Amino acid sequence: PQDEAAERLRAGLADRVARDIATTVDGEQVAVAPAQAGLSVDHEASVAEAGGEESWDPVRLWNYFTGGEVFDAEVEVDEATYNTFLAGLDEQHGATARDGAVAFDGAQIDTTEARAGRALDPSDTLTALEGAFLEEDPEVVALETVEVQPDIDASDVQEALDGFASPAVAAPVTLTFEGSDVKVFPADYTAALTLVPTDGELVPTLDPARLNEVVGAKITQGAPVDATVALVGGRPQVVPAKPGVTFDPAELEAGFLAAVAAPQGERTLALTATVAKPDFTTREARDLRVRERVSTFTTYFPYAEYRNVNIGRAAEIVDGTLLKPGETFSLNDTVGERTEANGFTKGYVINDGILVQDLGGGVSQMATTLFNAMFFAGLEDIEHKPHSFYIDRYPVGREATVAWGAVDLRFRNDTPYGVLIDTSFTDSTPSSSGAVTVTMYSTKHWDITTTTGERHNLTQPETRRIDSLTCHPNEGFGGFDIDVVRYFRPVGENTETREDEVFSTTYIPSDTVIC
Length: 515
Prior knowledge:
Blueprint: H1 2-18, E1 21-25, E2 28-32, E3 39-41, H2 43-49, H3 58-65, E4 75-77, H4 79-93, E5 101-105, E6 108-112, E7 117-120, H5 122-133, E8 141-143, E9 145-148, H6 154-168, E10 173-177, E11 180-184, H7 186-189, E12 193-198, E13 201-206, H8 208-216, E14 228-232, E15 235-239, E16 244-247, H9 249-261, E17 268-271, E18 273-276, H10 282-287, E19 292-301, H11 305-318, E20 321-323, E21 328-330, H12 331-335, E22 346-351, E23 354-359, H13 363-377, E24 380-383, E25 410-412, E26 419-426, E27 434-442, E28 446-452, E29 456-459, E30 463-465, E31 479-490, E32 501-507, E33 512-514
Parallel strand pairs: 1-8, 10-17, 30-33
Antiparallel strand pairs: 1-2, 3-4, 5-6, 7-9, 10-11, 12-13, 14-15, 16-18, 19-27, 20-26, 21-25, 22-23, 24-25, 26-27, 28-31, 29-31, 31-32
Helix pairs in contact: 1-2, 11-13
């Protein structure tokens, strides 16, 4: 019977199937387990091939009774197992071929040199192993690695350099949006370029999302953005204007690779677009000559959470304000109404000579700090109102209060330069004072000095008894008059002269309040 013949064949070949195949790889001895190489015997198929089935075919009978023929056993190869085994041999005894590559690092080109490898030929190796697998007395199989060429060789790398990579970093590409030109530079746009190995070549490939980011940094898709001045790394720098452009991104993507590879003088891509120009241009921003610190002033305040909230919020809103020549700053217009929706909370304010709670309490600390920064920058005082009674954490005679809809702090930039207002803020804690700083950047126009006179016209506090749940007790102190003088000395290109400016302040007494 056929299955009995298959069992006899299995038993007869058991020793050969189980033994290792002796090989050398480039002269180094390697024992190969047939099962690890994916080799096995199909015993049933071997018996069938040898005629191991019932048949009355005269040819079959003649062959059987006259001695028959010699057949090799049917060897099966598991391709997945064999490929894994061969990869392991190549990794251990060969060398992986390395494709050449070209990549961008900003405006620089990085190349990877192609390198040939060595590996066993899959077909020849399998034939040799199959031949020795079931031999009764096999010889050592000598396997030799052969050189393997990379898919991307040196000529492919050079072709990619000459045809695309070198032109790509040679010069910027000019995008023309209906007469408005925008230059994009290699250091920016190469992040959107990749040379991808495809069918033995390095093919330029574009990342549309990255390209749109690069172009979006130069323009605004929609409304234009005016130029301005901002602190960068602690120094004032012009932030360029951006034209507002509406265009088809697909049109940009379709033509950009060709523009990148074009020679100098032809690196222009015209796009169908609608352009809106900014009102304040980059040149106009540079003409403001905001270059140096012209004043800075810091005030400190005791711990109260409402002060942290309100002073910090006002500082946040004012930060980055740019005053052009002739423009007037208004604290109320800039900060807005002190409401909860605008980020403010209730705190103490002075009303009718006593402390009461109201939204925005503490914002006068910001007003005083701004006033002093303006004072020493030499800007024109338009409107300021000192507190009704003196608060000793403020410079006497050089402080200001504000109240929404009633009292404002306003000053005018009467210099020929722009003025950038920068703020910084530190929270107060139960164990430390808070601080707010206002720094103004411009081109120095005046050197400012000041003197403070003696207190005069002293007045005494009264005692007030208040029957109210909102009463805040207070230990009173006297009032007085004070004169502060601001002196102007021209510096730099300034040839103006200005008379000394006197600020006269009358502080009423702070009454003692008994609740």
